[in-house]
Amino acid sequence: MTNSGKTTLTNSLLRALPNCCVIHQDDFFKPQDQIAVGEDGFKQWDVLESLDMEAMLDTVQAWLSSPQKFARAHGVSVQPEASDTHILLLEGFLLYSYNLPRRHEVPRGALP
After folding, report:
1. Using alpha carbons only, how large is the chain's radius of gyration in Å?
2. Is 40 a residue of the active site?
3. Contact 20/13 with Cβ under 8 angstroms?
4. The domain 6-97 is classified under which CATH number: 3.40.47.10, 3.40.50.300, 3.40.640.10, 3.40.50.2300?
């Protein structure tokens, strides 16, 4: 769903939660020349194939491997009083449409 307030909610959570990072699905659109054109003559930006989901998952993996390093690299100041708390928000309108490949599964208990 577009224009439903996802980014507004995400920005509010970013301000309220300690050590919080966000990954926006909108940052992973493929280049314009790789976007299919529909029967109506318009580019199909609202389909999963318009996104580089592998690149997005690689970014999630980078956060999983080192939340502190990821936070610093993205301008998030790690708050010492909550140094054991790290939150990742994934924001996007097609997040639940993607079948996650096995290589990106997080083993149960892997995260604190």
Report:
1. 16
2. no
3. yes
4. 3.40.50.300
Percentage, residues of the chain above pLDDT 70:
82
CA-CA distance, 39 to 99, in Å (whole number)? 26
pLDDT tens profile 47-57? 888 999 999 99
Are 16 and 22 contacting, i.e. CB atoms less than 8 angstroms apart?
Answer: no
**The residue to which tokens 């970014």 are assigned:** 59
Give me the residue label for tokens 């936070």: 71
Buried b (16+ CB within 10 A) or exposed e, 28-55: beeeeeebeeeeeeeeeeeeeebbebee
Residue 50 contacts by C-beta under 8 Å, 6 or more apart in sequence?
Answer: 29, 30, 35, 36, 43, 44
Q: Is 15 left (phi over 0), alpha (psi -120 to 50) or beta?
A: alpha
